[in-house]
Amino acid sequence: MRLLFKQRFFSWLDSYDIYDESGNVVYTVEGKLSFGHCLDILDASGQYVGTVKEEILTFLPRFRIYAGGQCLGEIRKEFTFFKPAFQLDCNGWRVEGDIFSWEYQITDAAGEAVAHLSKELLHLTDTYVLEFPDPQNALLVLMIALAIDAAKCSAGD
């Protein structure tokens, strides 16, 4: 499965549209006014499905992820020198980026690839392509991409 994650151009708060391979909007993401990033995810019919919320007053960026009102876990940026890395504590996944923070590989506890995120360049807004074989992972992969983008925004990247 493949999703296109695109930030809206005119928006006071973080807002994104998420498209499938056919160009249909499958999710919308609306930023909320809060301390730290708080992103609500709505499905194509406008129903709430999840939230990515930044924890404040932490040394490195940390986000809690919620689906259906229940906390699934945290995504934490790890301290690294050259390549960004994130730990996801809800299912043992790990996220590693390239030195330029344009490509990210998500792997499971056994080191098997779960998803690939790539930032498209030469766009006016943040645009990512999310690729993953299991459609059941769509929401979680999207939440990871949102947390990465928010962490980069907080760092001024």
Automatic annotation (TrEMBL):
Protein name per UniProt: LURP-one-related family protein
InterPro entries reported for this sequence: LOR, LOR_sf, Tubby-like_C
Stretch forming the signal peptide: none
Organism: Anaerofilum hominis
Similarity comment text for this entry: Belongs to the LOR family.
Sections of the chain in a coiled coil: none
